[in-house]
Amino acid sequence: MDIIKRTRKTFGKWVLIPITRYYLSKERKVTVGTIQLKIPPGVFHPTLFSSTLLLLEFTATQLIGGLKALELGAGSGLLSIAMAQKGANVTASDINPLACTAIKDNAQINSVNIDIVHSDLFAKLSGRLFDIILINPPYYPRDPKNDAEKAWFCGIDHLYFKNLFLQLAYFLTDTGYAMMVLSEDCHIDRIQQLAIEGNYRWELYATPKRKGEMYYLIKLSA
What we know:
Largest sheet: 8 strands, mixed
CATH superfamily: Vaccinia Virus protein VP39
InterPro entries: DNA_methylase_N6_adenine_CS (IPR002052), Euk-Arch_PrmC-MTase (IPR052190), SAM-dependent_MTases_sf (IPR029063), Small_mtfrase_dom (IPR007848)
Low-confidence stretches: 3-16
Domain Methyltransferase small: 37-140
Structural class: alpha/beta
Strand content: 25-35%
Family: Belongs to the eukaryotic/archaeal PrmC-related family.
GO cellular component, one term: eRF1 methyltransferase complex
Keywords: Methyltransferase, S-adenosyl-L-methionine, Transferase
Mean pLDDT: 91
CATH class: Alpha Beta
C-alpha cells in the first residue's frame, strides 16, 4: 500500500500537477448532471477532484426539501445549486470573493435562489441556524499564501479546524448536523482530536474510494 501511495504521489508531482495547473489557469465550463457551471481561475474545481462529488452523492440520498442548508466554503456552488434544486433554503459562503462571484453566476445559469455570503467561516453568518452544513474543508497542513490556496491549506497548525470547531455548534439547530469530507492524505487523527476536544460527536458515515484515494465522510453533531 505504501508503494502504491508513493507511486501515486510521484506521478501526481511530475505529471498530473503541471497538467492540472494549466487546465485551471483558464475559465472552464462543466456540466454535472443537469447543473451547468462556469469555473474561473482561482476557484476550486468541483469535478477534477473527488471530494465535492462525494458530498454531491450524499445530498442526492437526503430529503432536504424545506431545510435550512449551508455550503461552507462553497467554491463554484455546485452543492448549493443541487440542494436548492431539491427545495432546500440554501446559503453559500466562501472566503474567496472570486468564488462568491462564481456562485452568483452559476446560480443564475441554473435558475435557483441562493443566499451568497462572503465570509471567513461563520464571521458574517451571525444569528443563523442550519439543519445541514456541508463542508469540503482545506485539509492539508500548510499556510495558504492567497485566497485560492485557502481552498486547499488549513494552516500548518490546523488553524482552520481549530476555528471551525470553536464556532460550528452555534450555527446548528437542535437536530442539525454537518457532513464533512476528508482524504486519507490529510491528518485525520489530529482533526478528529480537535473535534472531540470541541465536544462534537464524530461519526464515520462512509469510506468511499475514488481514483485510488480513500475518502472519509464524517458526520458532526454538537
